[in-house]
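Long-time lurker, finally posting.

We've been working with Phosphoribosylglycinamide formyltransferase (Marilutibacter chinensis) and I want a structural starting point before designing mutants. I don't trust myself to interpret raw outputs, so I'm hoping someone here can both generate the structure tokens and explain anything notable. Sequence follows.
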Amino acid sequence: MRRIAVLASGRGSNLQALIDAIAGGDLAAEVVGVFSDRSRAGAVERARAAGIPAVSLRPRDFDTRAAFDEALFSRVDDVQPDLIVCAGYMRLLSADVVEAREGRMINIHPSLLPAFKGLHTHQLALDAGATEHGASVHFVTAELDGGPVIAQARVPVLPDDDVERLSARVLAREHPLLLATVGALVEGRVRLVDGQVCDHGRPLAAPLQLGDDDRLLG
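Top reply, 14 upvotes:
Generated this for you. Predicted structure of Phosphoribosylglycinamide formyltransferase:
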């Protein structure tokens, strides 16, 4: 069974989706640790409620970002994860940490990358007059939201949308997108080879897409 470590800074809804899928027998994996930069994050509470070890460190207790990352990831390494999932983890990661775990760390981001990197993606989509929005799962690199994209889920932007309505529509597709992508990685279907996402050993010309049945389509 594949071992998953989760990094999260917020309420932990994507973490809960993973926990529920594993408990329901839909994902052949185990969450072996949850790690956060916020001791009161909802993700930490969800982890402990599920009996999963949770570690939180305060960035202000460290002199540099690199020192914080080294301390946090030494604890991540202690649980020997096969896959590291950044699910609402809001800190930039130092290049050394990322490069040492190339191909084993993914992030879910609420936009159709490469559009709208960083924060406030739903407002940016509305301001840009986008007709389509969504979420992406990508391999983590040192570039902010810039790693190779594995899979995406798309939703329409409706004429009467505001940030709240649009974000709720995206979140409803984020959870199945993350589960499908983690499943593909756990099964060995998807891998990072020489910096390129491969599906069944074939390089992808474009990200996989989440279908209406919550399966990834090439």
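Before you design anything, note these points.
Residues 163-186 form the longest helix (24 residues).
Residues 2-217 form a domain with the Rossmann fold fold (CATH 3.40.50.170).
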